[in-house]
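Hi U.,

Before I forget, here's the chain from the pilot set. I'm dumping it here mostly so it's searchable later in email.
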Amino acid sequence: MKKIYQLLFSLLFILSGFQMVSAQFGVSQKEDKKQNIIYFNPEIFPEIEEIKEPTYMAFYAATSEKSSPFRSYKSLRVDANIPYDSVDIDAIKEYCKNNNAQLAVVPKVKYFKVGFGKYVFSNQVIISMKLYDSMGNFLTETNYDTYKKNARILGSAENSIKIGTSGAVSKMGKNLRKSKSFFLGSTED
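Structure:
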């Protein structure tokens, strides 16, 4: 009778060991499935040094929200400036490869000029974004004008950047779903 108990105990021990090993493999597979999207620093117009850091902070705060169509992607910030009008495809491929990213966003923030002469900024902005895949293929482009979309006259420029960025990201997701050129869903089953 003792031998039967020892045999059952050792069999139970071995089976539980197999179960723990498969659980460890399952965690590593989920980590492999995690997709990344990189956001470059937005090109800012007009190019004034004092507004760069607050613009970057507001932009990245909006991109890290989980309400976007890219919520299954992990957002990565890349402190590099890529010109919006002349995008370097080789640089995008290299950044995607080094950061294990499937998508890359090249943004631009344009402040409205109010008045004549020197720049007096309004709180209204136009957020433009171009989306590329890891192979450097252009997927979609969109822009969001906070004045035309929300008719916001009052409020801070940081808040307008957040609203514009969220609007541009959701518009970009809609464009991708319509074109069906890229799968936006999660890879987890």
